[in-house]
Amino acid sequence: MKVAVIDLGTNTCNLLIAEFIKPGYRIVHQSKLLVRLGDNKIKNNLLSKEAISRAYYALAEKKKIIEKYHVQKVCVFATSAIRDAGNKIEFLEKVSNKTGWIVKVVSGEKEADLIFKGVLLALEEFKNPSVILDIGGGSNELIMAHKLEMLWKESQPTGMARVITQFALSNPLKPAEMIILHNFFEARHKAAFEQCIKHNVKNLVGCSGAFDTIADIIDQVNPGEKPRKKQEIRMEDFWKVYKTLTESTKKQRLKMKGMDMVRVDLIVPAVVFIGQFIKETGISKIIQTDFALREGVLYELLKSPGYVSLS
Hints:
By secondary structure, the chain is an alpha/beta fold. It has 2 domains: 2-105, 2-Layer Sandwich (Nucleotidyltransferase, domain 5), CATH 3.30.420; 124-289, Nucleotidyltransferase, domain 5, CATH 3.30.420. The protein is built from 12 helices and 11 strands. The strands form 2 sheets. It has a 6-stranded mixed beta sheet, sandwiched between helices. It has a 5-stranded mixed beta sheet with strand order 3-2-1-4-5, with helices on both faces. Helix 4 (108-123) packs across helix 12, helix 6 packs across helix 11 (267-281) and helix 9 (235-246) packs across helix 11 (267-281).
């Protein structure tokens, strides 16, 4: 059986197609399109007409790919930008009419659950107490895990699309703006910092966009060119990228090898948050993985074929 998982996120529409081959799976296609559901209207918790049009186009393109692969099951998920949008019902009804798909809007808690399962699919177990960090456009998810268990989780509406619409950041970032960002993340993710310190967590597992871009810049490869189930990001390499990005202009970032155009503006506050998190918690090791929400859906399907719980 082939299954397609679409993650309709705040920045991008991501598609994964996998074939189940007992007792496991094989990923046969991955792609993404920019939708920017989190444009300037996100500060008002609305989907703009332009964002809706981009989403319709992206889903139509993904449907063509899905039909080409003769997929038997399609699972479509929406996260922060849509779950918080005041005009989401009209949008979801139109998506259903246009595609025949029912879009499942997941809560922040469920999003964290799926991210945990996706990372577990990649790493198989957390040998040491670890914290998973998924930096999104609309929300950030932090999950503490050890062995096969999730010990703690949070989802906060502090994604980078929300940050750049709330704060008019300069290029390059000014010292005063760095302080503003630090205060913002400290206030909203204080519990996560405290949990990591309390449990002496030293391992950070970074998944999704920002960490993918950091790894691509370090490896000097084009975005999406190098799939990574798991790869260590050396701390010295992270701090080099941190310095380069936080001191860069947008024009300079546009020319960087490995820079995903989706994240040209979002990557700066993202690395500020990661750097702050490392310093405040004493993290000493970073593991990057491509696996996150979509792979978490695969995990659930593998455990319960044909059924995905969204309670």
